[in-house]
Design goal:
By secondary structure, this protein is α/β, with parallel strands linked by helices. The chain has one domain: P-loop containing nucleotide triphosphate hydrolases (Rossmann fold, 3-Layer(aba) Sandwich). A 5-stranded parallel beta sheet has the order 2-5-1-6-7, covered by helices on one side. It has a two-stranded antiparallel ribbon with strand order 3-4. A hairpin with a 4-residue loop joins strand 3 and strand 4. Helix 1 crosses helix 7 and helix 5 crosses helix 6.
Length: 206
């Protein structure tokens, strides 16, 4: 079996990473591309109360289980399937369920800090950073968290100012220098998406 081609898609919260990743998956087909979200690898916080979990900093590198994610990518590279945790945003914790991810020809890992961890970064054959203006990212995050995650606008803004913005400036934005490709405006950048899709299709037909 040919080793999967690993793609890392990083960028700020609500920059358009997931739009790009899901578009690639949709156009390529699940039989060819497996998609993994970094959010699935938030640490298990079952020993904490809901109040403690709700106030944790989920934009800091320490919030993630890097060893598990690295182990899973190593297993996929060796042709084995992995059980990826399913995260429950309402409970701020892993749900206890998993989903099986297969070592397809292409594996895409999408998340704010996938270019931060050196060990993880070195696994990728292609490293992408989605670069979107801060005001656009905030508006998108506000709409998403209120509509999909049951948050209040005030709580989203408070979190943005206290943890999201500082983490972006300290950890996420500097990781851009490790990218092979920088895509402005995320999924709205159709020419860049078309070029990326063409490359992915080449891999599938090799």
């Amino acid at each position: 079996m040919t080793r999967p081609f690993l793609i890392g898609v990083a960028g700020g919260s609500s920059s358009g990473k997931t739009t790009i990743s899901e578009r690639l998956a949709e156009m390529t087909g699940e039989q060819h591309l497996s998609l993994i979200e970094l959010d699935s690898y938030y640490l298990d916080r079952s020993g904490e109360s809901l109040e403690e979990r709700s106030t944790a900093n989920y934009d800091h590198p320490d919030a993630f289980d890097w060893p598990l994610l690295n182990d899973h990518l190593a297993a996929l590279a060796n042709g084995a399937s992995v059980a990826v945790p399913i995260y429950d945003y309402a409970q701020h914790n892993r749900s206890g369920n998993t989903r099986e991810v297969h070592p397809n020809r292409i594996v895409v890992v999408d998340g704010i800090l996938v270019l931060y961890d050196r060990a993880l970064r070195e696994r990728f054959d292609l490293k992408i950073f989605v670069d979107t203006a801060a005001d656009i990212r905030l508006i998108r995050r506000l709409r998403r968290d209120v509509a999909e995650r049951g948050r209040t606008a005030e709580s989203v803004i408070d979190q943005y100012l206290s943890t999201v913005k500082p983490a972006h400036e300290r950890f996420i934005e500097p990781s851009k220098r490790h990218a092979d490709v920088i895509i402005p405006e995320g999924g709205l950048n159709r020419p860049a998406l078309d070029v990326l899709l063409a490359r992915v299709r080449e891999l599938v037909t090799d």
